[in-house]
Specification:
mainly alpha; DNA polymerase, domain 1; hpI Integrase, Chain A; three-stranded antiparallel β-sheet
Length: 414
């Protein structure tokens, strides 16, 4: 397909010393992933600069590439081509999909911090056995810490307690107490790894204090049910993306599902004849079966008729923009923020999890037993469901005792 894309000058791309053999296959992969003709041209043209960078840094063939080399390439090219350097990350996804990339090549061309990050990622995957999302979270903290050391001109081997304290003080300005606690926990894990590989002396992970968090110190973030219904009514339901987003948020508002559970729904999980929706709960790793309501069923049918999942995908909700693939939980949060901005409603929360809390409070105010609410939400214990009792202020007022007046107090004292 490269010949039809560049009928006159396709040879100058296929003759690239390193990437020339992969250009034609890369273009086919872009087309199958949903990239437009203009985007494909844009990416193919950028490969010339990528090829020049790789040759300058000692890479002579595609088999010598690894994630660290491509990451360093992207970091350098983004300074020169801020709108085009993303092609390096796209090329990396293509090489991974075609098994053309290796992890065991020499790292002589890598920056020390990049090589250390890659080594830490392999440790998290192979030794710790962390999931992909957990590895990504821990690696993000490690890279932020290494970037902080780079800005302060501090080598990893000369790391001391003041450097750790300055990083935490800086992170505390952009993170909440809960997020900072998770960030410090990931930092401790990275410091343990550095001690294990002999990069820093033992003992540096212990003087780190975490913010104090109190159990049940915050109320669940719930919206009035009228606001939830108004938010759903404000959604645009004519475009493919509008139908997809409406089905997503209707599922959350109807069943209180988590974003990770929404994106994992496949066509096989919907039992159309039985009217049952099968959910794989990521948090508790237990199955959950829910009855399909007519409104949810209609929204799913309209979405799947408009945008059926292409082969080999079986997920109900996929990306609408290239590259085509499974939707991530973070994308649900971004769609929720965009929906709130368009609706014009006063919603102070940034994530769709508030719809789950709103649904639980709505059931509680409707007189649904706590055990039933816990079963619908997939809670393991009743203690997890009881936190919503603090939001049932109307019912709590009926339980409160009357405060005795001043006259009754004096009579009681006599």
């Amino acid at each position: 397909m490269l010949h039809s894309l560049f009928p006159r000058c396709h040879c100058k791309f296929t003759s690239l010393p390193i990437l020339g053999a992969t250009v034609d296959g890369f273009d086919d992969w872009l087309a199958s992933s949903g990239y437009t003709r203009g985007s494909r041209k844009f990416s193919i043209r950028m490969l010339r600069h990528v090829d020049v960078y790789l040759r300058r840094h000692g890479v002579h063939k595609v088999a010598s590439l690894n994630h660290g080399t491509l990451y360093a390439c992207w970091r350098d090219l983004i300074k020169i081509f801020p709108t085009s350097a993303g092609t390096v990350r796209t090329l990396e996804r293509y090489l991974v999909a075609k098994d053309l990339i290796t992890h065991d090549c020499k790292r002589t061309a890598l920056a020390p911090t990049v090589a250390l990050s890659e080594q830490y990622a392999n440790h998290l995957r192979e030794v710790q056995g962390f999931s992909v999302s957990t590895v990504s979270s821990h690696l993000r903290t490690a890279e932020c810490f290494l970037e902080h050391l780079k800005k302060t001109a501090t080598a990893v081997g000369r790391l001391a307690a003041p450097h750790i304290e300055s990083y935490i003080a800086k992170a505390g300005k952009r993170l909440s107490r809960g997020s900072l606690q998770h960030d410090i926990a990931a930092l401790r894990g990275f410091l343990r790894f550095l001690i294990m590989v002999g990069k820093i002396p033992a003992g540096l992970k212990y003087p780190i204090d975490t913010p104090r968090l109190y159990r049940l110190e915050r109320l669940p973030r719930a919206l009035p049910w009228t606001t939830v219904r108004a938010l759903l009514r404000s959604m645009e339901k004519t475009s493919p993306m509008g139908l997809r987003d409406y089905a997503i948020f209707l599922l959350i508002a109807t069943y209180g599902l988590r974003a990770s559970e929404i994106v994992a729904i496949t066509v096989d999980d919907i039992r159309w004849r039985e009217g049952i929706l099968h959910i794989h709960q990521r948090k508790t790793s237990s199955p959950l079966e829910l009855p399909l309501t007519n409104e949810v069923l209609s929204a799913l049918v309209k979405h799947l008729k408009r945008t059926p999942p292409p082969t080999p995908y079986r997920r109900v909700f996929l990306r609408m923009r290239a590259p085509i693939g499974a939707l991530k939980p973070t994308a649900v949060g971004e769609a929720f923020q965009a929906l709130v901005r368009k609706s014009g409603l006063s919603i102070p929360y940034q994530g769709p999890h508030c719809l789950r809390h709103s649904y639980a409070v709505h059931l509680l105010k409707s007189g649904t037993p706590l055990k039933t609410i816990g079963d619908i939400l997939g809670h393991r214990t009743a203690e997890s469901t009881c936190m919503y009792l603090r939001l049932a202020t109307g019912d709590l007022r009926e339980v409160a005792l009357q405060v005795p007046s001043s006259n009754k107090r004096k009579e009681g004292q006599r």
